[in-house]
Amino acid sequence: MVVRNAYSGSYDSLTSETLTIVGLTSETSTTNVTIIKELSEEFLNSFYETIIDAGYSDATKNEDDYSITVLGFKFYVVIIKSGYYYIVNIYTETMNSTISLSTNSVWMAETSKKDYDYNIVVRGSNNFINITCGAYKSTTSEKKIITIAKAKNLITNEEAYYFSGYEIDSSSSGAKYIRNKNHNYNVLKNISFSTYYTESGLNTVSKLVCEPQLAYNGTYLIYSMLRGNSAVLSPGKYYKIGNEIYYNDRNYLFKVE
Question: How many CB atoms within 10 Å of residue 148?
Fold first, then answer.
């Protein structure tokens, strides 16, 4: 599952509208977001199209609330005005206080113009989806939009999700989150990944290449994700590990199918 789609075009005019998202902080909460209607519709449709093209047949789209559900995880994707640019903003149903995952300066167009030019890249497997965007004036680069991965709570044996709107290796506050699948509003924030290959005796090429990825003090297993040894593996490349193919995103490897 690796697909890159390119999109470009222009509008005669752009319209601001207020989107009310229900359920971000609780089942009955409402959050009002001022969005750019035409660009939000364009980006929502292209986002969904690329996800479907990548083989995620379970994905659904709701044009009324600008949401997409994939791997059973629902999020909202809109374009908002920020300074001199229109940028991507992602929201999820599961946040308590920080509801915006990915402002992340992904420019979709200048506010002085009404044209757009970007590409979307989707990589992953039936347990993992990683979505990046090559945006306006920099379509060949890739900036993270959202990562969603299925996980397991090793203490309770519950299914869970890891998700983030930032680069996988980011140490920024609020960058990475985990929640149990059936407990939407009980979100673990600012989680860190466990790593063992840096320990004495394991940090040489001859000892370890990659390891299963654990998070939150080793209590969650992230499916289809490995931590790579930077002495062996290079970011931005694909590797065959056993009979499976993995993409190395800054020495965090995830399976692609």
Answer: 21
Cβ-count burial of 66 within 10 angstroms (0-12 exposed, 13-18 middle, 19+ buried)? buried
Instruction: Spell out a b/e string for 13-40, using b for 16 or more CB atoms within 10 Å of the CB, else e.
Output: ebeeeebebebbbeeeeebebebbbbbb
3-class DSSP assignment, residue 10:
strand
pLDDT in tens, 58-95: 999 999 999 999 999 999 999 988 888 888 888 887 65
Tokens of 180: 């149990």
> E strand or H helix at 48, and its extent?
helix 37-53
Token duo for residue 164 = 């983030």
For residues 28 and 190, give the distance between their C-alpha atoms in angstroms, rounded to a whole number: 25
Query: Could you give phi then psi for residue 206, rounded to 5 degrees?
Result: -75, -15
Per-residue pLDDT tens for 97-135? 333 434 445 778 888 888 888 999 999 999 999 999 888
CA–CA separation, 87 vs 106, rounded Å?
5
Sheet arrangement for strand 85-92: 60-62, 67-70, 73-82, 85-92, 107-110
Distances, alpha carbon 80 to alpha carbons 44, 97, 244, in Å: 13, 20, 39
Bridge-based pairing state of the strands 115-125 and 2-10: antiparallel
* Residue 46 in tokens: 């292209």
